[in-house]
Each structure stands twice: as structure tokens, then as C-alpha cells.
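Please check the following.

. . .
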Amino acid sequence: MYMNTDYNPSITINLDNGIYIFNNESATGKTRLCKRLKDLKAYGEPVDSFTYNDLLRGIRLDSVLTPVNKVILLDRYDLYKTEGYDLINKCADNSIILIDCKTPFLGSLDIEDCFIEMGEDSIVVTI
């Protein structure tokens, strides 16, 4: 589980370490969560996120997929889905890995679905 109430919106990720896949519904708040995690990383929190635009800017996926991060969100993963299977599985023991993928994730058999709930002042991720 990860919780941060120091900043607005508050973030609660009520999950154990492992790999979680969001449903493929659009406009639920996954990209907002991605941006918030990047902000929190800049504030020194042990979280991070990665999206296709990062890849286009030359940022490497392995800079985000490290066991130091308690939460890692891979946004729009279907656009770079051939990247990082080994790192994702390696980090899953120590981190909560959240994946936004519109196509089936084939990098692990040990995955669970998760859901995001957006509020005006909160973002909550649960099973």
C-alpha cells in the first residue's frame, strides 16, 4: 500500500506489491495519476511513472523500473509493450506496478486487475 496526503490531490494505492492492469476504459484518470506520480517523484517520494512521450524524449524505461520506487505507473504501455518485461517482473516483488494497456499484457502470468477512482481532491487505486 502507498498513501500520500501531503499534497492535493491525495493519493491512495490500496494494493500489495505486484503487477496490476487497469481496465481499458478511457478518461478514468490514469494519465492524471501518471502526472501526479511524476510530481511526487520530483518532491522526493519513492514513486515514478513512464509514458510513451518519455520514450520519445529518449528517457529509458529502466530509469523508472527500479526497486527503489514503491509505485511505478506505466501509462499507455501498449505503445511500447515490447519493452521491459524482465524489469517489470523483477520490480514486482518490491513495488506496486500499475499498467495502463489497452491490449492484453503478455509480460507475466501473475497479474491482477485494478481500478481507479477519481475525486476532486483524491485519487484511489484498488482491486
Remarks:
- The chain has three helices and eight strands.
- Residues 2-126 form a domain with the Rossmann fold fold (CATH 3.40.50).
